[in-house]
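DATA SHEET
Item: assembly model
Revision: 1
Owner: S.N.
Input lines:
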Amino acid sequence: MREPTFLILTALARAPMHGYGLITEVAELSGGRVDLRPGTLYGALDRLADDGLVERDREEIVDGRARRYYRLTDRGETALGAEVERLSHTVRAAQARLSARATQRPAVA
Amino acid sequence: MTRSLADRYRSLLRFYPADYRAERGDELVDTYLDLAEPGQRRPRPADVADLARGGLRQHLRARHAHGLADALPFAAILALSTATALAAVWLVAAETVTIPMGVFWTSVGPFATLGAVAWIAWLLAAVAALAGWSRPVVLVALLVTVATIPVSWLTSYARPPLFVLVPQVALGLFALFLPARRVSYEPIVVAVAATGAAVLIRGDFFYYNLLDVLAFAAVGLALVIAVSGAVFTSRGDARGWLPAQVLLGPILLLALTRLAEPGQQRWPEFSGAVLTAVVSTVVAAAAVPASVWLSGRRRRTRCAACGQRSIG
């Protein structure tokens, strides 16, 4: 799973969101590293919908602008959970190796 | 002001298929307006590129070929790896040939032809890929490779033969699809391995004695693509066999050089080389659109109620 996809699913895990909200949430989750533009975001949402990981939730009109909300499906929740487990396993392995490296390093006089 | 900006964004929606525009157009434009800076009058260049990419993806998606967009970066890594491997072999094994006494030849420093400059640029592209900076360096390497032809024509310096330069340019064009900031270690690993192999086979060879290298590169690239295609297909990955279609042109250009050799001569005649290059390019250029068209056509269904055809 690519990072933008992971971040979109993560953002939707808390509550249904509209496009603009998703873009700001993904930027916040990634510490500003991932700057999704609308063309990319909606392309990703279409593909996630094709795969059954997200679906449309509801529509609202705010200040004359249409807000279409998207939510995580059960399948999306499962996919996100599996990816979190995979990443956690990788992080644990990396931490273990770093700890072992730190203990093996000779003390500097 | 806002309305003007909205109109400008709306005009860029022409990149998208009409039905998608009708369904998603307002939502896309409204999101761009939400993100616009105060006082912004025109779409930013990054937004134009974003909409162009998004439109292309939707056209491909409508034809159930969205894997093509994902296949290009993978094909780009393979193309850059092959290009740098060839560059390493040419630099080490062909450019260091000893020019016989009495032959009128203008060397380029310690190297035989202008090709050395291009091959060094390709190797630098492999190094740049480690830092995610390969695309501008690939562009420079590509331009230097092409520039060897007019520079050689205008000066007394020799250049590598066209049957070496043309596949290299074809590989370079696909290597440009490597996403910006994508860190790739594969090209440098392949280049180092190729350098080792070139040192082992190094003798008093010039390009014309090393034609088998092109055939080996074609076979190696085809094998990697075949294995990855089988893996993608078995995993249900949308990329499937698309990398094979994308890189069909460079593979044909590499492989057909051997077939273009007439009789006793150990390198292709100009007419044979041109013919194989044209055939390779036409076949490769037709393969991807034909595949996308067939993919869309296979999935078109006719609505039982209204009789209207739709993609589904």
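QC remark: The interface with chain A takes residues 24, 26-28, 30-35, 46-47, 50-51, 53-55, 57-58, 61, 66 of chain B (CB under 8 Å).
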